[in-house]
Structures are given as structure tokens and as C-alpha cells.
Amino acid sequence: MSAGLSGGRRVAALVLLALVFVMEGNDIAAMSLAVPRLEGALGLAPTSFGLVFTALLIGIGIGGATLAPLGDRVGRRPLIVFGCLGVAIATLATTTASTITAFLIWRFLTGLAFGACLANVSALSAELAPAGLRATIMAVVSAGIPLGLGAAGFMAPSVVAIAGWHGLFVVPGLLAAALALLLGYLLASGPPEAVTQAKGDAPKVPQIELFRKPWLFPFAVFATLLSLNALNLYLLTSWLPVVLPLANFTMDQAAFVFGIVQFAGIGIGVAASLGIDRWRPAPTLMLMFGAMAACFAIVALGTSGATQSTLLLMVGVGGASGGAMVLPALCAYLFTARQLSSAIGMGVLVARISAFCGPLLGQAILSAKAGPGTFFFAAAIPAALCVLTCFALPAALKVRQSEEASA
What we know:
59% of the residues are buried. This protein has a single domain (2-401), classed as MFS general substrate transporter like domains (Growth Hormone, Chain: A), CATH 1.20.1250. The protein has helices at residues 7-42, 50-66, 71-74, 76-93, 100-128, 134-142, 144-163, 167-186, 193-197, 206-209, 216-246, 251-278, 281-301, 306-326, 331-334, 340-355, 357-367, 372-389, 393-406. It is mainly alpha-helical. It is 80% helix and 0% strand. The longest helix has 36 residues, at 7-42.
């Protein structure tokens, strides 16, 4: 597939693929930023939205496991284009919702479209990247997630002033529609090169290969890291705009902090990806997750002022966003090219089992009136568990090396 694009078109394709992640981050933030405003507009209490946040994750998991792996066989283009189109329709339709059930349905359908699309966006960015910079290019492309989250936080007051809470969904919906048209025109058709060159060896159901030896161990390590980081990411992105006002931030200040920590995540994610490409994956990720755990623990103590807390959250929440950027890039080192969409898609599904707990955990903490300290202490635990999981990463990386050497 990548061979069908010239140098200039490859760069344009990577820019548009990055914008898909910008759109995802903006779309994820839309619901989080809308929730505090829906109580006044529709009479819906913020604590009733836990299942709505989870519905998006369920949709992403199902789409990633059942639809995304088709990209390894039929090509990335149709999954990406129709995924963006599905996101556009479902996100714009969310503006018509007035009940928890309606929000739940539209967010589930949005997640389903995202699940089909995003794994193929990551896989295609790896195929378009130079061999020695795959993790970095994948991370830079997926930097669109924290960029979109951050932009949504900064834009929220202006967007709401102009179009009400509905505008928070109109922006990512229109962006998704535009990307569907542009990517449909730009991307080449056809299956990935690795499948074209080895049709006889490609499994009919590529997902199953990941649950057999020797690939089960690296997939387990990859999925565990994704799961723990996804729990943190969705705990934080779902409830941070609600928790910060409980810690004496105004609603607009909370939106600003929500935005600034996401931009910090871009720098953290790019730095970590360079560490994976140019240094060693395990120590790089240990440093990132260890710093996250420490920062959340300090914020949980409640002894820091607003400025110090913001700086600590830039490392903590930014690290979770950076982890979402860099962890899929591990696939370029853990698995072969013909396994990329399947590995990322199945990783997303397994991760969502843990990520479902994120919004619900935040809802339980807030419903129990446990306070911001408990919330941030809860965020420190998954980060610390990621540090422990990274001890298994060197052995997982050797599996692909052994398989390629024997082949």
C-alpha cells in the first residue's frame, strides 16, 4: 500500500493520519467537557454519565477486534475512510441527544467507528515511516490525541459561548467528515505489502495467531501495558474537568488545565518514542510511568498549590496521553508488519476491558464524595503497575527477533 504513494503524498498522508488522531482526541474531550454543562441545559447530573463514557470504550473495543483486523487483508484505506465517515455521522447525531440513553447509543456507535479506523491509522503510519523511525513516526502521528484533547479544552469556552454544548460535538464531527473525503482521495487502495508478498502464509483469522505461541507472551505484555494506561487515560480524561473544580479550580481554569496537560503529553510521548527508537524500550517506559506514579501521589497529598499541581499534572496526565501515543508504536518492534492491525486492534479490545473501569471508578469515587486526593491516588496505582510490567518487556521483544532469525 505504501509503495503506491510518492514522497510528497506520503508526507500528506501522514499529516492527515495525524489529524484523524486530533479528531479522536477532540471527540473524546467533547463528552467530558459537555458533562458539567448538561446539568443546567438538560437537567442531567454529571454522576449519571459513567456508562456513557464506558459506551464509547465498548464500541472502540468491539470495532478494534472485529473490524480493524480486516485492514490486514483488504487494505487500510476502506477501514480508515468509512471509519471517519461513521464517526462524523454518530458525533453530529450526538447533538440531538437529550437523555442518558440517547447519549449512550450515539457514543457507542462513535466508538465502533473509531475502533475500525484507528488501528489501521497506526498500522499505515508504520508502513509509511522509515524503518529506523517507526516508533517515532507512529508516536508523532498519534500525538494528535493529546493535541485534540488539549485544543478542545482551550476552545471549549469559546465554542460553548457561540453554539452551546452542541458545538463541542459539531467541531470533531465536521473534521471527521472532511478527513473521510480527503483520505479517500489520497490513500492508495489494496492490501498491505506484507500480505501481498506472502499471501500463502497469511492466516485467515490473523487475530488468533496472537493467542498462540510464540506470540502470546509479547501480546500479553503489550496488552497489559495498554490496559493499565487506558484505565488511567479514561479515568483522567473523563473526570478531570469535574474533579478539578472540587480542588478549588474554576470551571474555565479546569478546562485550561485539561488542555495544557494534554500538550505536555505530546512532548512526553515524542521523547519516549525517541527513547524506544534510539535507546531501549523498557528503561524508557519505566522512567515515564514511574514519574507519572510519583506525580499523582504528590498531588493526592493535597499539599501543592495550584501552580505546582498543574505542573505535576502535566507530567502525570501528560504521561497517560503520551503512553497512548507511544505504546501502539511498540507493535513495530514486537510484531511483524502483517500483524500490525490485528495486534493493535486486539490490544485495544483487551485494553478496553480494563479501560471500562476508568470512568466507572471515577464515578464511584465522586459518588462516595471521597475527594480529589483519593481520585489522584487511584491514578497512581496503574502507573506503578506499568513500571512492574516493563520488566517483562525485554523478553517479549526477543520473540520477534527469534522468529525472524529462524525464518
